[in-house]
Design goal:
This protein has about 120 residues and is mainly α. About 100% of the residues lie in helices and about 0% in strands. The longest helix is centred in the middle third of the chain and has 119 residues. The model has no long low-confidence stretch (mean pLDDT about 90). Keywords: Membrane, Transmembrane, Transmembrane helix.
């Protein structure tokens, strides 16, 4: 064996050791990637039903909001109708009631005045 053969043999052994040292992290990296793939699959399997349930909840909430909007619109209409009815009642009955009250007050004062003078004259 010559010096060149020994140097080649040492270089080949060094290369094999280098490949062995680099193979260990690559194998570990492969395991990490496998675990990552399994974790992502489990996360996907668990998150899809949650997203479906959230979508159903949002749809139900939207339905309830439509019902609340309908109720609020009806309440506004009822409030407007009551306001209009109150105004109509005040205009229709309120004026004549004030006149009747004033007339009855005048009648009481007049009758009270006649009765009061009649008692003092006796």
């Amino acid at each position: 064996m010559s010096v060149g053969d020994i140097a080649g043999l040492i270089a080949a052994i060094a290369f094999v050791l280098l490949v062995g040292v680099l193979a260990v992290p690559l194998v570990k990296l492969g395991r990490v990637l496998d675990e990552t793939r399994v974790s992502v699959k489990e996360l996907t399997d668990h998150s899809v039903p949650i997203l479906d349930e959230a979508a159903a909840t949002v749809a139900s909430a939207n339905t309830q909001l439509v019902k609340v909007d309908t109720i609020t619109t009806a309440a506004v209409q009822v409030s407007e109708n009551v306001s209009a009815l109150t105004s109509l009642f005040a205009a229709t009955v309120g004026g004549p009631m004030v006149k009747v009250a004033a007339f009855s007050y005048a009648v009481r004062r007049t009758v009270g005045g006649f009765l009061g003078r009649g008692r003092s004259a006796r």
